Amino acid sequence: MRIIKENLSKFYGGKILDVGTGRGDFIKLLSENLKGYDKIVGIDSHEEILDATREKLHTKNVELIKMDGENMDFEDESFDAVCLSNTLHHLSDKTRVIEEMKRVLKTNGIFIINEMFCDHQNEAQMAHVYVHHIGADIDMITNRMNHNYTYRREEIKEIIRSQGIKILDAFEFKYSDEISTNTDEFEEIYTAVGKRIENIRQSPRYEEIKKRFEDLKEWMNKYGLAGATQLMIIGKK
Ligand SMILES: C[S@@+](CC[C@H](N)C(=O)[O-])C[C@H]1O[C@@H](n2cnc3c(N)ncnc32)[C@H](O)[C@@H]1O
């Protein structure tokens, strides 16, 4: 996490927008590592996710609003920084959301894009990628939310450039260096994922996903589990 401090502490965030706030992990990371900020506004299209975040996120000067990133209710050029963390692979219309982010960003403001990637990971990190991909498939089958597989590292940069964002800096980081071999933790994950898989029994993809889950358990028991490395990009419009 030292690399995060080194890179983010250069910036005073001012008024920040976080699109696809989810459980608020990225807001916490920003608040702890930027030089400072005035306010963070987090938006998410799912009210029930924001409700859970409101209960557990106690970061100061944060406002959470249910809003679709495709149609934001903010004035042009009203934020000093706009962020998108682990949400790029959730967007049904990336161009529309990124256009909106550009619209609400001040001329000299910064983009902060963070995304875990699916290649260049060690075996324990691949367990995270495989769990994530099974979760993404289940989210799509159950219509819980739009959820694609995570991109390859270079693909993320290509997407960002193709959306007209100028990349000023890019670096990689991990939330933790730990490789877990804690079988109690694994059992909790297996139970939670197993339950979700049973909910898609009627899907034509049930057997295939169940087989991937069995393979994943073998993989994780052999190599352990670690958080995937993420790519953080600092850019300008
Ligand atoms: C993996 S979570 C985000 C995690 C969080 N940003 C972090 O880094 O800790 C992705 C979130 O994006 C939200 N989302 C997807 N499409 C969206 C859109 N068009 N507008 C707003 N939120 C969206 C989903 O509801 C979900 O909560």
Automatic annotation (TrEMBL):
<feature type="domain" description="Methyltransferase type 11">
    <location>
        <begin position="17"/>
        <end position="113"/>
    </location>
</feature>
<dbReference type="InterPro" id="IPR013216">
    <property type="entry name" value="Methyltransf_11"/>
</dbReference>
<protein>
    <recommendedName>
        <fullName>Methyltransferase type 11 domain-containing protein</fullName>
    </recommendedName>
</protein>
<dbReference type="Pfam" id="PF08241">
    <property type="entry name" value="Methyltransf_11"/>
</dbReference>
<dbReference type="GO" id="GO:0008757">
    <property type="term" value="F:S-adenosylmethionine-dependent methyltransferase activity"/>
</dbReference>
<dbReference type="InterPro" id="IPR029063">
    <property type="entry name" value="SAM-dependent_MTases_sf"/>
</dbReference>
